[in-house]
Amino acid sequence: MSLNSIGTDNARTPRLMLTRLWRRVREARRLPLLPSVLLLVVVIIPAVFAGQIAPHSPDQGDLNDRLLPPAWVGETIKYKTIVEKVNRENRMNEILLKDAERRVKIGDGTITGGGQNVQIGDQLEILSRKAGSTKYLLGTDKNGMDIFSRLIYGARLALVVSLLGIVVSGIIGSSLGIIAGYYGGILDAIIMRMVDVSLSISLVLIALVLAAVRGPSIENVLIVICLFLWSRYARLIRGETLQLKSQDFIARAQVSGASNLRIMYKHIFPNLANTIIVLATLQIGFVIILEASLSFLGAGVPRPNPAWGLMVADGRELLSNAWWVSLVPTVAIVLTVLSINLLGDWVRDWLDPKQRQI
């Protein structure tokens, strides 16, 4: 090798490194920044550092601070006319004389204009709801528990349940899908009929039956996810395995004397990794919604555990007076699932060579 060729190769090396670096930067720019930030802020960081971030206990509250609004909401004042007899058609705006005297005496109401004597026809000013405070950033629920702290610990619960369910069901479904696609025949028919049965059964119905038999628990949610989510993996992986099975490198591995187990583990599974990762990413949002739905119906996480579905259920009867009890966890669920789905689409495009070239 001449000195000129060595110098040329050395000159090309930095240029090649810069080219690869620029390619990586272009690929990173396609990452959806806003969904990534939302996912970090709403789920990952609170789930990992829940003990350090949460200002209060997630399962203990003070009844004196029940149904306090978020910190940015001011106090609500109602005005009622003092009457001798309340009219049914206008009972929301009127108050009896003796009730008005009692409220003024205990300091729960004041006469408009600053008077001390309660008379018929006066306007009584009543503090119907206290203002929010920085002590409870997102308010409190009907038991006086801090919604912000419960939201943080609920993120940990949602993340743990979704990851466990996705990993276990992914292992089961991927393994059965590879076996069905590789061996075929009667084994393939049996596994596919099991997939059809699994897809035809309602997840919520099975969860309700388990809750009636065993009581609501986190284990019920994991059982439902693992027993019925595997079929989605099995069907997709089986189709991919059928395509890989007809490739030349599989035939060469068989000719070289490799066992069926080695072919499935060393040759087929690595070529399915991208598909499994994309499917798992897209299923996380589904699992979070499923866990929240089961908890909302009373078949999932039991009280007083801080689950997002339970928080929504606790506030469904308070929407007119305490909207934040249901709205805050609902927004958290929507933002989390939306962010995960957008990231799943990006992972799918990033792992697909055809999409990366666009």
Kindly describe this structure.
Its main location: membrane. InterPro entries: BP-dependent_transpt_permease, MetI-like, MetI-like_sf. It holds the Pfam family BPD_transp_1. With 358 residues, the chain is mainly alpha-helical. The chain folds into two domains: 54 residues; 205 residues, MetI-like fold, CATH 1.10.3720. It contains 13 helices and four strands. A four-stranded mixed beta sheet has the order 2-1-4-3, covered by helices on one side. Helix 8 packs antiparallel against helix 10, helix 9 packs across helix 10 and helix 10 runs antiparallel to helix 12. The chain is elongated. The two termini are 39 Å apart.
Low-pLDDT stretches: 1-11
Measure the end-to-end span.
Answer: 39 Å
Q: What's the order of the H and E elements? A: HHHEEHEEHHHHHHHHH
CATH architecture of the largest domain: Orthogonal Bundle
| Cα-based radius of gyration, to the nearest Å | 30 Å
Proportion of strand residues: 5-15%
CATH class bucket of the largest domain: Mainly Alpha
Total count of domains: 2
CATH topology of the largest domain: MetI-like fold
Largest sheet: 4 strands, mixed
The chain-level mean pLDDT equals: 80
Keywords: Cell membrane, Membrane, Transmembrane, Transmembrane helix, Transport
InterPro entries: BP-dependent_transpt_permease (IPR050366), MetI-like (IPR000515), MetI-like_sf (IPR035906)
GO biological process, one term: transmembrane transport
Pfam family, one: BPD_transp_1
